């Protein structure tokens, strides 16, 4: 068997900016929320401009910047529950919840009837509708609370301060006190939370129906959802920039990144080291895995197995660390999949399988946003390629599949077989190894598999 191609050069060390790393990962959060790509960046650009007009202190602008990029970080934690409640694509539900007023009983009932179990028969749909009609507001408020608490925990794990965590926790509070979570009101709500909410609602409506509709909705909610002062500032900002090159940057994704990343120079253009990057990769792996109960801990285990194989094969410490990140993030493309597929407890149809296969291309797309992950995006996204050329997403031939990808593939298949999911039962270690042995030379690299077998005793012991 030909020797596997090794990635020729690891990315050369360079200055990694926290703003670019978090900004790049924000695309994954947009995807999970069913929002137009660049949503978080647009909110960051608009909200940071509002913060400047409010004459916020430098440290408050810094906090605001990352609140705006990470406002949806807790969203994956409620994906499975939303799917169970509504029996609908949770990404569609999430995007609509951004602008739904749960205190308006008419709007709430319309939302429930138009989004609940819409493809089911009468009896099944009725069984889903009744508890939502009776307790829908309570269920949604509890989910908002879970989302807020999980989001606050994650930003602390990412290394941000309590102010950022508090703002994430209070994101769905409303100016009049009728929001979700704790029901706080007016100036008790952190200003970063207020700005995040108003920019979020504006961008959702702007992407759907244009600027006039978006501004009309913002005005309607002045004094209810939003501070009248912030509404005035937002309208003034948009009026002054509507025909400028700055506004064109807001509406053009190709210029958006540069505009947003340059905003950070107003505060602190903080560079990060390998340890901080590892923490960020670990946190986002947990975000990905929290999307479904069947993927809980999957990415962390795959990274652990990947490192064990790489160590056995004699890869350098630097390459192992680089590859470990790729293994942590190999399934980040799952953020774009519906939980109707991830949580399904019966065999997937052919069309559903094709849809699931898109997660590999999504992984490439999401990791490719970060300059230092360009090469890693190719390695991590290819973990479903096969040596016989029958894999996906590119049906790569054996000579094109790198050693690093082959390592992740062994680790990924082992964990999938051991843990199982909604439509595949978990297997014993003996059965898993027998299956994987048969897959060698067609799906799996035999050298990588043999290296893994040598490490299994120590892995099980630990």
Automatic annotation (TrEMBL):
InterPro entries named in the record: Cyclic_di-GMP/3'3'-cGAMP_PDE, HD/PDEase_dom, HD_GYP_dom
PROSITE patterns linked: HD_GYP
Pfam assignment, any one: HD_5
Domain HD-GYP: 273-462
Name of this protein: Response regulator
Organism: hydrothermal vent metagenome
Lineage of the species this protein comes from: unclassified sequences, metagenomes, ecological metagenomes
